[in-house]
Design brief:
This protein is an alpha+beta fold. The protein has three domains: 188 residues, Jelly Rolls; 48 residues; 59 residues, Arc Repressor Mutant, subunit A. Helix content is 50%, strand content 19%. The strands form two sheets. The protein has a six-stranded antiparallel beta sheet with strand order 1-2-9-4-7-10. A hairpin with a 5-residue loop joins strand 1 and strand 2. Helix 1 runs parallel beside helix 3 and helix 5 crosses helix 6.
Length: 319
C-alpha cells in the first residue's frame, strides 16, 4: 500500500512538473495574450489573466491540455469541465461554446492545443498490436486523466518553442509520441473509432467534414446519408450520439458561429452576415442567433467587442 501511494505521488509530481514547465514557456511566448499559433505545426498556445465570458469555438480533431486553470466546454446540451489533471480529446470537428473558469493576474490560465494528424493516427493504429477495449458509443469529445507519459511528451513538444532550430527534426517524432499516448489512454478508443476506415464514427466523420465544407448550402439528409453509407434514421442516431446534435442543428451552429465571427472580425452587419452563411430569412437568423447567444446580433457583437473576446475561427478552416 505504501509503495502504491509513493508511486502515485511520484506520478503526480511528474505531471505537476510538466504543467509548470509548459505554463512558463507559454507565458513567455504569448505576445498579446489570448491565443497564438506557434512555429510547431498544429500547436496553438492560449492564456487568460481573468475569467472569460462564454465564446464560440470550433474544435478540430485535437488534444488539449491545461497547464494552469480550468475550462468549461459546452457541446449541444452537454457540458464538460476539465482542469490541470485531465486532457480534452476531440475526435471530430465540433462547434462548441467555451469559457475559462479559473484565471487571475496572479494565477493565469495557460493551455495548449495540438491538432491531430489523422493519417498519422491511422498509421499508429496499424502499427500497435493491441489497444484496450473499444468504448461504447459516445460523443466525439471526451476528458481523460493526464498521465505522466503524456504530460512529459507534451512538455517536450512545447520546449521546442525555445529551440526553433530543432522543430524540423524533433516536432514530428514528439507529435507521434503524444498521439501514441492519446490512442492508448482510457479514452483513446474515441479517436480510434473516428479514424479507422469503415467504422460508424468514421462514416459520421465523413458527413461532418462535408457539412463543414458546405455549411452555407442547402442540407439534404438523403444525400448526406448516402455519403456516409447509412440509412437516414441510422445517420441521425449516430450523428447525434457523436456530436450531441442532429445534422441540421450542427449546420445551424456552424452558420451562427461563422456569422458571429464575420460581424466581430469583419465589422459587417447582421443582414450581410446572415446572407453569407446561407440564411435566406433575416427574421429566422435573428431568432436563432438570439436563442444561441442570448442576445440579438447587434447587442451581442457590441458586448463581444467591448470585452475584446476572440470569436471562433473561420468555419472554413481546415482540420
Amino acid at each position: 500500500m505504501i509503495a502504491s501511494g509513493s508511486k502515485a505521488a511520484g506520478q503526480g509530481e511528474m505531471v505537476a512538473f510538466a504543467r509548470s514547465r509548459i505554463a512558463d514557456i507559454v507565458e513567455r511566448h504569448l505576445k498579446d495574450g489570448g491565443q497564438e499559433e506557434t512555429p510547431v505545426a498544429g500547436l496553438t498556445i492560449h492564456g487568460k489573466t481573468g475569467p472569460a465570458e462564454p465564446t464560440s469555438f470550433l474544435y478540430d480533431p485535437s488534444f488539449a491540455l491545461i497547464a494552469s486553470g480550468s475550462k468549461r466546454v459546452v457541446l449541444g446540451d452537454e457540458s464538460y469541465i476539465y482542469d490541470e489533471s485531465h486532457f480534452l480529446l476531440t475526435s471530430v470537428g465540433l462547434p462548441t461554446i467555451v469559457q475559462v473558469l479559473n484565471a487571475s493576474p496572479s494565477q493565469p490560465y495557460y493551455s495548449i492545443k495540438l491538432n491531430i494528424d489523422l493519417e498519422l493516427a491511422r498509421e499508429l493504429i496499424c502499427e500497435v498490436a493491441q489497444y484496450g477495449p473499444e468504448p461504447s458509443a459516445g460523443t466525439g469529445m471526451a476528458i481523460g486523466p493526464l498521465a505522466p507519459s503524456l504530460a512529459l511528451a507534451a512538455m517536450r513538444l512545447v520546449e521546442l518553442l525555445d529551440s526553433p532550430q530543432d522543430i524540423p527534426i524533433l516536432a514530428r517524432p514528439l507529435q507521434r509520441e503524444i498521439l501514441y499516448h492519446v490512442l492508448t489512454s482510457p479514452i483513446g478508443g474515441r479517436l480510434r473509432q473516428a479514424v479507422q476506415i469503415g467504422t460508424r464514427t468514421n462514416r459520421v466523420a465523413a458527413a461532418i467534414a462535408w457539412i463543414r465544407e458546405n455549411f452555407t448550402e442547402v442540407l439534404r439528409i438523403e444525400e448526406l446519408a448516402e455519403l456516409a453509407g447509412m440509412g437516414e434514421s441510422t445517420l441521425h442516431h449516430h450523428f447525434r450520439a457523436i456530436t450531441a446534435m442532429s445534422p441540421l442543428q450542427y449546420q445551424k451552429q456552424l452558420r451562427l458561429h461563422e456569422a458571429r465571427r464575420l460581424m466581430v472580425n469583419d465589422r459587417i452587419d447582421a443582414g450581410l452576415a446572415a446572407f453569407r452563411v446561407g440564411y435566406e430569412s433575416a427574421t429566422q437568423f435573428n431568432r436563432e442567433y438570439r436563442r444561441m447567444f442570448g442576445a440579438p446580433p447587434k447587442r451581442d457583437v457590441a458586448s463581444v467587442l467591448s470585452k475584446n473576446t476572440v470569436p471562433a475561427e473561420s468555419m472554413t478552416a481546415s482540420a
